[in-house]
Write a structure and sequence with these properties.
single chain; alpha/beta; two-stranded parallel sheet; 11 strands; 37% helix; 18% strand; globular
Length: 256
């Protein structure tokens, strides 16, 4: 994982050394925070086609808007498998950022165009040798395996847009902890998971601890929702509560 707050030159040198290794290179992650936005955008412009993990940590709404305009669709990040947009604590994201998150978590088209090239902003300066190396590892648009929406605060109706776009066939880990998702939207999410055409759901973990859902929904109603999920995916672990005294997380396995 490369942190964008590090020196840009150091980061590019590190990445270049890694990418020029033999083709056992598989996983490249980038952590962007408010202090390293410029560096992060530069690295995304050069290596977005092979990036597998992207974490945006503690960003304000205007900063998210900058990233969204720079990388508007999943075509810009075709190899991405893990996506974590974590806004500054308590920030409610505006509709334009919600639309971008929905675009990032959407499933790939059934017949992706193999010849399609990712959009690169006109003012991005890309080293020719690095571009050639990146193209060797570029993969088709892959579905996300991990979506981390911890602490995400959306306008209530905007959750529906994200849920309707969410690709669930390959999704293994979904983190909604500390978010403001509520019962209606969570029921919509579970219905979407259950409606998946995949022969077997990939979902392993669903984290809802300390969310508005947990704080405002009765245990009876939650049990009923979990029962629906249990019918199709009894192996899913649902993270419900954190125990502050021992800093542990209780994992509840949905079992028959």
């Amino acid at each position: 994982m490369i942190h964008s707050a590090d020196s840009l030159e150091d980061g590019v040198d590190i990445l270049s050394n890694i990418i020029h290794q033999p083709p056992n290179f598989r996983d490249l992650g980038l952590h962007v925070n408010y202090r390293g936005l410029e560096q992060g955008l530069s690295l995304l412009g050069q290596y977005g086609t092979i990036l597998s993990r992207l974490r945006l940590y503690g960003l304000a709404t205007d900063t998210f808007s900058i990233v969204a305009s720079y990388l508007p669709t999943r075509n810009n990040l075709p190899a991405l498998e893990s996506f974590e947009p974590r806004p500054y604590h308590g920030t409610t994201l505006p509709p334009n950022v919600t639309s971008w998150i929905a675009a990032m978590v959407t499933a790939p088209p059934q017949r992706p165009a193999s010849s399609a090239s990712p959009h690169i902003p006109q003012d991005t300066v890309i080293d020719e040798q690095s571009t050639h190396s990146a193209s060797r590892f570029a993969r088709p648009w892959t579905p996300l395996r991990k979506v981390m929406l911890r602490g995400v605060q959306l306008q209530r109706d905007e959750w529906s847009r994200v849920i309707e776009s969410l690709g669930v066939s390959a999704l293994e880990h979904l983190d909604l902890s500390e978010s403001n998702i509520v019962q209606k939207q969570f029921e919509m999410l579970v219905d979407r998971i259950l409606d998946s055409s995949a022969p077997k759901l990939a979902l392993k973990t669903l984290d809802i601890r300390e969310s508005t859902l947990i704080k405002t929904t009765s245990s009876d109603k939650l049990d009923a929702i979990f029962a629906n999920l249990r019918e199709k995916a009894p192996w899913v672990k649902i993270v419900l509560i954190a125990v502050p005294v021992v800093a542990a997380v209780l994992l509840v396995r949905c079992a028959k």
